[in-house]
Design the sequence.
């Protein structure tokens, strides 16, 4: 008959079954408690005036800290001195930094600055590092953007913080610019009047600031005009599409020519 003693070390590994069971209990309970604590922490922060982006960042930061603590307690339950583990981790970190791989700490610091100063916020549409998308989240190490074609883009925080950021939706209003060219010889006063009427009659174009039309260039094949209309940020693309289609139809209806680039080629015949 086999006598099972849970306090006897398992051959070759030197750990008792009791230690293994204790470690598993600590790991499972710690994971559950961490989830509860982080959820309560975020729920409490949401009652304050802190932005959602900051709440999520602090929640992720706290969860990372607690998970590390749970892992250290689990290792300690297995009979391993956590002091040696921490010392080993410090040596690894020192080795990483010695090889010039300090991007992890840079990303962490950049994430803190982004969450604190909020050059971007969750749900905003931004352009950064050559990408344009809606901010999904700012994590401890990286920021996630959702592109217009539903592609998820992950950008390291150090790149976000070190780049120029264009925020397309932070302001409540935006100016819609629509460029169009008319042929030389066109009655510009009439062309401008038609464009103004188009903008003034659009229900989503704001009266203040008032819309306007500017002559932007005397180009090679056309006189270039720019329709400038202000609208609410959420109506930007609707107004831009309506004005682009509307000015094209209006000029065609009124017989105003919208030229395309032309090139005159003169051939000189040489007498042989």
Sequence:
């Amino acid at each position: 008959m086999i006598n099972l003693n849970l306090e006897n070390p398992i051959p070759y590994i030197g750990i008792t079954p009791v230690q293994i069971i204790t470690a598993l209990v600590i790991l499972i309970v710690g994971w559950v408690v961490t989830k509860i604590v982080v959820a309560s922490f975020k729920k409490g922060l949401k009652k304050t005036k802190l932005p959602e982006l900051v709440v999520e960042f602090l929640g992720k930061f706290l969860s990372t800290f607690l998970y590390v603590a749970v892992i250290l307690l689990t290792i300690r339950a297995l009979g391993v001195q956590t002091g040696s583990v921490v010392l080993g981790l410090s040596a690894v970190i020192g080795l990483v930094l010695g090889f010039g791989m300090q991007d992890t700490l840079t990303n962490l610091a950049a994430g803190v600055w982004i969450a604190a100063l909020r050059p971007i916020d969750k749900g905003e549409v931004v352009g950064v590092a050559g990408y344009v998308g809606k901010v999904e989240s700012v994590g401890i190490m990286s920021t996630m953007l959702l592109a217009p074609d539903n592609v998820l883009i992950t950008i390291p925080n150090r790149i976000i913080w070190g780049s120029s950021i264009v925020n397309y939706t932070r302001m409540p209003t935006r100016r819609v610019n629509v460029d169009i060219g008319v042929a030389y010889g066109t009655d510009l006063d009439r062309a401008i009047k038609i464009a103004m009427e188009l903008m003034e009659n659009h229900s989503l174009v704001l009266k203040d600031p008032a819309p306007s039309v500017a002559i932007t260039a005397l180009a090679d094949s056309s006189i270039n005009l720019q329709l400038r209309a202000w609208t609410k940020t959420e109506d930007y693309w609707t107004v831009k599409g309506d004005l682009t289609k509307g000015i094209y139809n209006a000029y065609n209806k009124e017989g105003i020519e919208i030229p395309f680039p032309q090139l005159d080629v003169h051939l000189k015949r040489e007498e042989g």
Notes: Residues 173-253 form a domain with the Alpha-Beta Plaits fold (CATH 3.30.70.100). The mean pLDDT is 84. The chain is about 45% helix and 20% strand. The longest strand covers residues 173-182.
